[in-house]
Every structure is written in structure tokens, then in C-alpha cells.
Amino acid sequence: MKKEILFDLKSPYRNNFQIEGFRFGEGRKAVAVVGSMRGDEIQQQFICSQLVKNLIEIEDKGLLRKGVEILVIPSVNHFSMNINKRFWAMDNTDINRMFPGYDRGETTQRIAAAIFDIICRYRYGIHFASFYIPGQFIPHVRVMDTGYQDLDLARSFGLPYVSVREPKAYDTTILNYNWQIFGTQAFTVYSSDTDAINKDSAKMAWKSVLRFLAHHRIIKYDIHDGYDSEVIAERNLLSIKSDRGGILYMKHVANDEVRQGDVLAEILDPYDGSVLSTVTAPASGVIFFSLRSPLASQNTVIYRLIRYS
Known about the structure:
Blueprint: E1 2-9, E2 17-24, E3 28-36, H1 42-60, E4 68-75, H2 78-82, H3 107-119, E5 124-129, E6 135-137, E7 140-144, H4 151-155, E8 161-165, H5 175-181, E9 185-190, H6 199-215, E10 230-233, E11 238-241, E12 246-250, E13 257-258, E14 263-268, E15 275-280, E16 285-291, E17 295-296, E18 301-307
Helix pairs in contact: 1-6
């Protein structure tokens, strides 16, 4: 294993901002893994740290295939993590909305450009990401429907679901999309949590990457096949929204199986505790995503449901 500085930015207030990477093996650039790009992605950085720990042991035992290289970048935005901010500390911009980057642009554009110049050369790219609203997911791997995606590759992670997203205009600046456009088979792995460590879900995530590496004979590693992944289209997920604002009292969370008419949550009056609104399941299925917030505003997505056919 070689630890190196991939990006170094002078700071007027504290030590230089440095992005570190861990390289395993030498030769063909096989897999690049990127961890947290946002300051609240504690779970994602933890997952990467455990993946690095496992890969060190695998390499020390001589179980890494000769002639290939794996690069792991655990964190791209620890400045913001240090001060509990989700986005870049100076201007509140999102690094994962800056790809492929611009080396003469704003700070986050330069960070994206420097990192992308390194990782776009790898055959496979894996990003541990978080959702734009706080909540819990069923662990899954997401691919962008760019025309270059390979769903069989996505299934080899062995996670319960493979989610296929039709890219919107604002998706064209995220890492996953640009990786694919520039010739890397890209996958985004979602764990159940973001700003808190869920050990069971984290283990599913880093083990899924080891499973992927073993399946493609990049490492020698005995591991079960995982799930027979079901492919779902994001456009078919049923969004369930709140019709009132108030205290959100959840009765079901991600991975719960529900039936049409089941009470999923209640919106409570914050002053007298009365029930302002009852959120019920409009169809039978499995909860794919559940909001994690003590309060809900009106018209907020509380759940996303995989409907039974």
C-alpha cells in the first residue's frame, strides 16, 4: 500500500487542505473508490476506512492480483467535516456538483478537476454517496442511464437492489455521470445512513466492494454471493409526501414491508400533540427510503416506496 497526497491547496487560516489516496498494487488501473465529498458523510468515510483496512490485509497476504491497481480516496471534503458543514466551508458549494471540474475555476471546481484527472483513468469507479435529503435507504447500488451502463456489473456487488436513474440536467455535473461519459464503468453505493455510523449497513457496503473485486478477479477473497439484486427504475418509485407541516412521528422506516392503507407516519401539532395528518401507504410494497427528521414541512418527501406489481 502506498499513501500519497493527490491534491494540496494552501489555506490562509489553517494547515494546507490535502486529499490523500491509498494505492494498492501496480499496473493496470482497475478500480478507483471515492468516499465522502460532503462534510456530513461520516458513514461514507467510515466505510472507506474499513475498506482500506481490509485491502491492507489482503495485499499483505498476497491476495491482490498482480498487474492491477486499486485507488481509494476516503475523503474529499474533510475541511467541512471538521466544522460540521455539509458543503464546502468557504462558499457552501457542493463538490459533487462540479465535475468534471475546471482547473482555473472556483475552489471546488479545481478540487473536482484535480481528482477527476486522476480517477477518470480507471476501468471501474465506485462512489459512496448520500441523498440530497437526510434519511435512510435500503442499501443499494445506483447507476446512471447514460447508455454506457452495465447492469450485470452492478449486480455483482450483491446488494439487494440496483437502482437505475435517468439523468436530469443537474445530474450532468456529478461524479457518477461524468465517470461514465469519460469511459469508466461507474457505480454509486448507498448505505442506510449519512451523518451517523450504522455498522451493519456500513459492513454491507464495504463487503459489497470486496465482493465486486473478487467477482472480477482483482483480489482473491472468499465471500458469499450476496443478494440476487433486483433492478428497479427510479422513475417507478412511489414518492409519499406530507400534506401538513409539524412533528414527524414515524411508524415505519426503510426496508419495512407495508400494505396498502397501513399507517406509515403521523404529523403532530408541535404545541398540543394532536394529529394533524395521518400518512398512509397508497400501495403495497417495500419502503426504499424514509426521511430521518424530527420535523416535516408541507409537501416533503417522507417515503419512497417500491410497489409490488
